[in-house]
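User: My collaborator sent over this chain with a note saying "see what the structure looks like." That's all I know about it. Can you take a look?
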Amino acid sequence: MSETICAISTAAGMGAIAIVRVSGDEAINIVSKIFKNCKGDRPLTELQPRRALYGNIMNADGSILDEVVCTTFVAPHSFTGENSVEIACHGSQFIQQSILQLLLENGCRLATPGEFTQRAFTNGKMDLSQAEAVADVIASNSAASHRLAINQMRGGFSRELAKLRQSLLDFVSLIELELDFSEEEVEFADRSRLTDL
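Assistant: Without extra context I'll predict from the sequence alone. Here is the result:
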């Protein structure tokens, strides 16, 4: 979890624009080593969070690899709950792989499958049900399955579980109250609530 990770977030060959995602404590610092603002007025490290900055990804020899837009996210206000940068580059496989290589050379490591979602779960950005729903959203192939997966990812299933849990806790507390004072003539619990729960 202390390592800064990177990965291509878009499917191969699916468009003119691709996203390379970087996440971890050093995400912004690492990307700033290979990114140069086109206007030259401020570095990526000084960009306000959740703002996009147009610039170039630079090769180690100082040549321009690609014109990109970088968006920074500062912990905990990101998908993973960590510092993150999303690099929107051209969709060329060569460009994407070259950006990954530059990130690896500057301190990142390749993310394992599902590691961004795992970090979001570990950092409390989503519960297990929501984390599992991310895969369902990606795999959805109809409007109904997509709607169900989005609802689960946004916490719909978790909210229902929370309501059921609270009802069970209320029920258990009423039962315990009845058991504790069942031999006394004082009735503390409203027995009609037991049937309502």
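A starting point for your reply to your collaborator: The beta strands are 5-8, 17-23, 35-37, 52-58, 64-73, 84-90, 109-110.
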